[in-house]
Amino acid sequence: MPTYQQFPLPDAGEGLTEAEIVAWHVAVGDTVEVNQTIVEIETAKSLVDLPCPWSGVVSAILVEPGQTVDVGTPIIEIDTDPTGAAPDAGGDVVRAEHGGAIEHGHRGNGRHQGVEPGGADEIEAARASSPTPVVATAPAAHEGGRAAAGLVERAPQQEVAAGLAGHGPTDPREAAGLTGAAPVSTAAGLAAAPARESVLVGYGLADTGAGRRPRATEQAAPTTAATPPSSRHALAKPPVRKLARELGVDLDSLHPTGPGGIVTREDVLERAAQAEARTLATYPGDDAPWLASGTVSVDGRQTRVPVKSVRKRTAEAMVTSAFTAPHVTVFQTVDVTRTMKLVERLRADREFADVRVTPLLIAAKALILAVRRHPEINASWDEGAQEIIYKHYVNLGIAAATPRGLVVPNVKDAHRLGLLDLAKGIAELTSTARAGRTSPADMSDGTITITNVGVFGIDTGTPILNPGEAGILAFGAIRLQPWVHKGKVKPRHVTQLALSFDHRLVDGELGSRVLADVAATLADPAQGLVWG
Predict the structure, then answer these.
(1) Residue 290: predicted pLDDT
(2) 311-531 adopts what CATH topology?
(3) Would residue 289 be called left, alpha or beta, if left means φ above 0 and alpha means ψ between -120 and 50 degrees?
(4) Which fold has domain 232-306?
(5) Measured between alpha carbons, how far is residue 398 from residues 110, 406, 443, 463, 508 in Å?
(6) Can you tell me the distance from the alpha carbon of 61 to that of 78, in angstroms, rounded to the nearest whole number?
(7) Residue 112 annotated as catalytic
(8) Fold for domain 4-79?
(9) Three-class SS of residue 88?
(10) Mean pLDDT of the chain
(11) Distance separating alpha carbons of residues 160 and 176, to the nearest angstrom
């Protein structure tokens, strides 16, 4: 017998409470295996592929792509015994065969409900047991062995159509032959009437056929169903419609000023003039994928994008950090000409041929060396326990800008890595981050961070601490500038460094010493041999 298992959204790591369904890799009816990737989700930190916990056949997709759901919410249903024997009866269906006793069966997982009343008792039973409107039709001939007067199931969509004004009488008691407390006519009595459709509206029966005179107090039903205001189309004469098409104006978005709610030529021209005069400062085209999930205002001047995923988590973390840890930033300008020469030599070295060598690599190594000399900065503040946690390892965070927002993966145990392995670690982290594939584990347990603002041509900044860390180094742009070198003014490669730190853990002296050590290594990379 079919066995249906619902797969709840799991916690992808670090106590996350929600995730967005990005894309399904399976569809209803597909056969799946254990550990097969079935869905891609986006958490507050990264994109994650979820494997299937069972083998079977997909019976239902419960959450559509683009929706954000809480952890624990069922997202897919799988039949883990698709070859099993089907049950004898259908799903929560109330069934009565030609005036016989009402039967309750099970069809599938009970997604559809119907009723086949054959008499007053059946209708009253259906009225009492069905929580929703029940649908039935009266055929004119035998159907599947049923009598001509028997009532058969009809889809819920038909119920709506039958209940619309203009489809016949709507008095449920009169349509079913009910007057006062009189019983409903039997199947034989219904057979004598012309073939017609009946609908249980709410818990009453409404006749949709002809052949009934309305009550004296009844008002005549309108000939057409009322159209909801939201689905009305603008009224306009053909010349006005042609003008709107030529000017690219949506008639339905206009407020008509003509008699009877007609859109006039002046309405169209006014909207066209407004659109022409309001040139947008930014164009939300293909080069702005961050607008794809947003809602554009009627005038096209604004797009509202929900705050979620990485950007939501980043905002929360930055606000917490900025208003929890007292930030202090110190700056230093340094001549990095020797670092630039070292970078050129490493790029020509065959051992570094497969990795990308940049000044950031040397700055990262310099920061690791400074942490080794001043381990007090490699710490975090535990507010709950009122303790300072000193960490005897360096998980070096590398801030990476991605289309989904800023992420800060970290190179685990960076203090143990040589220059080549550190270069490989940084390259792997940044490429994975830009592809949106950074795992939560790669962004956890960082101890100190470096952010390269120089790649954007920025000289320096005052970076905000990554939560749980005591220091972050901003590495600015390297520029060729006049610089006094050995008593003479010469063109030299110069950059600016900025170190922000948590003043609860790091005082001004310690922060300045750390930054001075980083600057000293960048000014003369050979110093690293002494300190390393």
Answers:
(1) 62
(2) Chloramphenicol Acetyltransferase (3.30.559)
(3) alpha
(4) Dihydrolipoamide Transferase (4.10.320)
(5) 52, 10, 10, 13, 24
(6) 9
(7) no
(8) OB fold (Dihydrolipoamide Acetyltransferase, E2P) (2.40.50)
(9) coil
(10) 75
(11) 18
